[in-house]
Amino acid sequence: MKYKTLIAATLLLLTGHAVQAEEIGSVDTVFKVFGPDHKIVVEAFDDPDVKNVTCYISRAKTGGIKGGLGLAEDTSDAAISCQQVGPVELSDKIKNGKSHGEVVFQKRTSLVFKKLQVVRFYDAKRNTLAYLAYSDKVVEGSPKNALSAVPIMPWR
């Protein structure tokens, strides 16, 4: 019974964030005879608490038989670029400093224990949003990371 509770709790943690990314495209990097090829996937998502900021993230996706079945662990390689796409509107919780280091996006990169995350920081002094992409595991994460900054400018 304890195992069922642990599995249910783990699944809730993995699916807790509702932000979904839209796949923009992908390129194959390694041909696989059986199963899908290894590839780099490019996805876009909108920041849920900042109107008119869109982030584009590229990440490695493992193919082959394990990758096709969802059993492979993707590498920790990712890149991010966030852009102002209209007049930026910060939510009240960001303006009031109650949203520092908030996870705005998560993507599972292994069957259970590894995920790619994007965390937003608000630099009030410079009126800039910083987005950090990194990969973590339950036991040991990776130091690989990528950063994108969006200065909040008047929209023309």
From TrEMBL:
Keyword Signal attached: yes
Residue stretches spanning the membrane: none
Signal peptide region: 1-21
Species annotation: Silvania hatchlandensis
GO CC terms, sorted: cytosol
Protein name as catalogued: Protein CreA
One protein family per Pfam: CreA
Keywords associated with the record: Signal
Domain of life: Bacteria
Keyword Acetylation: no
